[in-house]
Design brief:
The complex is a heterodimer. Chain A has a domain at 1-47: Glu-tRNAGln amidotransferase C subunit, N-terminal domain (Histone, subunit A, Orthogonal Bundle). In chain A, a hairpin with a 2-residue loop joins β2 (83-84) and β3 (87-91). By secondary structure, chain A is mainly alpha-helical. Chain A has helices at 5-14, 21-44, 73-76, and strands at residues 62-63, 83-84, 87-91. A two-stranded antiparallel sheet of chain A has the order 2-3. In chain A, α1 crosses α2 (21-44). By secondary structure, chain B is an alpha+beta fold. Chain B folds into 3 domains: 9-302, no CATH class; 311-419, no CATH class; 428-486, Arc Repressor Mutant, subunit A, CATH 1.10.10. Chain B has 15 helices and 15 strands. Chain B has helices at residues 59-71, 174-191, 231-250, 296-304, 310-321, 325-334, 337-345, 350-368, 379-390, 396-407, 413-419, 428-441, 443-450, 457-467, 474-486; strands at residues 9-20, 57-58, 75-76, 83-86, 96-99, 106-115, 118-131, 135-140, 148-154, 161-167, 203-213, 223-228, 258-263, 268-274, 284-285. In chain B, α14 crosses α15 (474-486). The longest helix of chain B has 20 residues, at 231-250. Chain B is elongated and about 95 Å long. Chains A and B meet through β1 and β3 of A and β2, α1, β8 and β9 of B.
């Protein structure tokens, strides 16, 4: 599968990457190659191989509902580039919301 | 899509309801769940999305999801899994929210809701598990996201387990939407999986509203309306949105697919943002979380242990206990059905007991700004109060005063009656003096009664009741007045 430059720009926008035209060109080729790898799987996976998202045959891994100590708040925000009143300071939010 | 202009439209409404679970810990980590407190005091590397941290599912949250699914008549999916919903928004520090996508834990149930127009079935598309987001404080002149200079984020709420309940677009009116939300809330409360407070955000409801010409089957373009903080505001927001879209369509305009914000004070919705398409979230299976595959034995055990659900409770109150339909609905909705059953068990008449609960106790709740179910009233005490009325110790009016005393923690109805000196006076000798005094004090009224104006007796009865501080037996007062004025 070959990606159009529009596809590449769309993906770049979703990932908040500003790309030059040259980068769109170069990365478009690379992304297409990666997709081609993934398509190989489709060639070898027969009907009897269900899609799987996990390599291990594990299911139902649950925690008991018991609280444990959380991080001290000063540690929690220690990795934040900016903090204020114990909260994470983030730049102005524009546009999107979940 | 453009619909041809029509004169009559019907609304097509679907609701998405989020319920915050009341587990002890978050969905994927062992941080405690609590309200209030200092910001970022209940976080850890997992819910902060630190590299290398790994989420592990809270088994209790899975149990809650299965129980709600069973209560809604859903099929429990044999193998479901978690997906990452990718988006850039600082309320999730990971830049994705863990949610469920194509294989949610519960599929295909239904709720029957009752409105003034009768019963209406609303399909449940799915119930899925996800995690709550953090809380943002927008700093700037407006206090809202628009115009903010920057935002401050508290992740105490990030990672709290949420169940999202998605309805089919089966709802046609605001009243049905309100009834649906109320019934869903009642079920959640009966299951005890959340405190489900709309005002405080532990239950949230978004409405997808579109219009189509009556008789058509194709859906119109929908708007998603958010920020309704009560069942009442859900109704208002939907009414507003139906009127807005009707106005657009009848004037030949289109409805734009977008998310709209309900402003409770202004009583209107406004554009929040135009809708992203689903594929922009780039859902993919979360490789850190293994599938959820509840075994049949567990599911059946949970099914067998389900509490009596509101619909069954209402039916039983009507059929077996003898309460009227509307009162049964009110009692279950306000959580006083248990008190009623206890009162009936202690000998109270069902109708009477239901009246007292749905009138007096509800009024008490309004006055105190508390849920009626917070009333410190047992069924036994309500039955005792009603017995005091039926044996003539208390008039209804005095009984109301006694109830006030009981609800204020002054003791049992008998104790309050005694302590407040409220026994009804049914001894004619004790009332006679007040009756005579009333006739002397208002000769004009007395003469009118003698002349056959029966209504005039009311003024004299009132005077006697005032004189006896409301304690005279009104029937006896009436009788004594008539004896004196009419029998000569």
């Amino acid at each position: 599968m070959s990606l159009s430059t529009d596809d590449v720009r769309h993906v770049a926008r979703l990932a908040r990457l500003a790309l030059t035209d040259d980068e769109v060109e170069a990365l478009g080729g690379q992304l297409s190659n990666i997709l081609a790898y993934a398509e190989k799987v489709g060639e070898v996976a027969a009907e009897d191989v269900p899609p799987t998202s996990h390599p291990y045959p594990l299911r139902n891994v649950y925690r008991t509902d018991e609280a444990r100590a959380s991080l001290p708040p000063e540690d929690a925000i220690s990795t934040a580039p900016q903090a204020e009143d114990g909260r994470f300071h983030v730049p102005r939010i524009v546009g999107e919301e979940a | 899509m453009v619909l041809e202009q029509a004169t009559h439209y019907e609304a097509v409404i679907g609701l998405e309801v989020h319920v915050e679970l009341n587990t002890n810990t978050k969905m994927f980590c062992s941080c405690a769940i609590d309200f209030g407190g200092e910001p970022n005091t209940r976080t850890c590397p997992v819910c902060l999305g630190q590299p290398g941290s790994l989420p592990v599912v809270n088994g209790k949250a899975v149990e809650a999801a299965i129980r709600l699914g069973l209560a809604l008549g859903c099929d429990i999916t044999p193998v479901s899994q978690f997906h990452r919903k990718n988006y850039f928004y600082p309320d999730m520090p990971k830049n994705y929210q863990i949610s469920q996508y194509d294989v949610p834990i519960c599929l295909g149930g239904a709720l029957t809701v009752t409105t003034g127009e009768g019963d209406h079935r609303v399909g449940i598309t799915r119930v899925h598990m996800e995690e709550d987001t953090g809380k943002s404080l927008h700093v700037g002149t407006s206090g809202r996201i628009h115009g903010a200079e920057y935002s401050l984020v508290d992740y105490n709420r990030a990672g709290i387990p949420l169940l999202e309940i998605v309805s089919e677009p089966d709802i046609r009116t605001a009243a049905q939407a309100q009834a649906y939300l109320a019934e869903l809330r009642a079920i959640v409360l009966a299951l005890g999986i959340s405190d489900a407070r709309l005002e405080e955000g532990s239950m949230r409801c978004d409405a997808n509203v579109s219009l189509r010409p009556v008789g058509h089957t194709v859906f119109g373009t929908r708007a998603e309306v958010k920020n309704m903080n009560s069942i009442r505001s859900l109704g208002r927001a939907i009414e507003y949105e139906i009127a807005r879209q009707t106005d657009l369509l009848t004037h030949g305009h289109r409805v734009v697919q977008e998310t709209r914000h309900w402003d409770e004070d202004a009583g209107r919705t406004s554009t929040l943002r135009t809708k992203e398409t689903t594929e922009d979230y780039r859902y993919f299976p979360d490789p850190d979380l293994v599938p959820v595959a509840p075994d049949a034995g567990w599911i059946e055990k949970l099914r067998a242990a389900l509490p009596e659900l509101p619909a069954a409770k209402r039916r039983r109150l009507v059929d077996d206990v003898g309460v009227g339909r509307e009162q049964a609905a009110t009692l279950v909705a306000i959580g006083l059905d248990g008190v009623l059953e206890d009162a009936v068990g202690a000998g109270a008449a069902a109708g009477e007991a239901a009246n007292w609960l749905t009138n007096e106790v509800v009024a008490w709740g309004n006055e105190q700004d508390l849920e009626p179910s917070a009333a410190p009233l047992t069924g036994a005490r309500l039955a005792e109060l009603l017995a005091l009325v039926s044996d003539g110790t208390l008039s209804k009016k005095l009984a109301r005063q006694v109830l006030t005393g009981v609800l204020a923690g002054e003791g049992s109805p008998r104790e309050v009656t005694k302590a407040r000196g409220l026994e009804q006076i049914s001894d004619s000798d004790a009332i006679a003096a007040a009756v005579d005094a009333a006739i002397v004090a208002d000769p004009a009224a007395a003469q009118k009664v003698r002349d056959g104006n029966d209504k005039a007796i009311g003024a004299l009865v009132g005077a006697v009741m005032r004189e006896t501080r409301g304690q005279a037996n009104p029937g006896l007062v009436n009788q004594l007045l008539r004896e004196r004025l009419l029998s000569s």
